[in-house]
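Handout, page 2. Input:
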Amino acid sequence: MRREDEDEVRRLPLLTGVAETHITFLLKNAFLQRFPAHVELIRENEPADFLYVIVDGQIELYAAFRDRETTVAVLEPGQSFIVAAVVLDRVYLKSARTLAPSRMLMIPAEAVRHVFGTDAAFARAIAEELALAYRAVVKEIKNQKLRSGLERLANWLIARDREVGSECKFDLPYDKKILASRLGMAPEVLSRSFSALAGYNVEVAGRHVTLHDREALLRLAKPSPTIDDPLT
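Output:
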């Protein structure tokens, strides 16, 4: 790993406060790998060999059963995935692939478990990752079970607008097919939902979205802190 790359990965949240000797041990055994878009990184039901930390890029977590496939989450830089499988030494419960060119820090699972058992700061960081992942799952279950597809889309648009600066104009970060799967609906249902949102002054041109009346969309969405606030 190049010196400038090592300096960059040392600033990742997962390594904050970890003893220098343990960081050195983890990075000595780790790989910083570049992947083009649409590359499968891991497969469901395979052994957890590495902990993955996104340095840059965009990763889709997904699962398949028979002839069906669904997007579980889309992750951004700084986030880790497959943490529970690594800590417990179990198989992956989902698959992962790149949506965009990405750089991944890949830390061998055995090295992660070793430092997890010896460094309190690292164990705390892992525990926080697991706690955040658990709360995200609870929020997603509530989102899926308590809202209609139209309400889920409206809340996603409001959240995305907030993430990119609240200017009421933004591009979808990935294909509509992935967005549909992420929201738990078929692509044709997503298309109808976008059409229905025209009544709330939402304009969609390709991947570009304009919210002409954010207050009207908010009245439809009725966002809840215990579902939609990432800090709750």
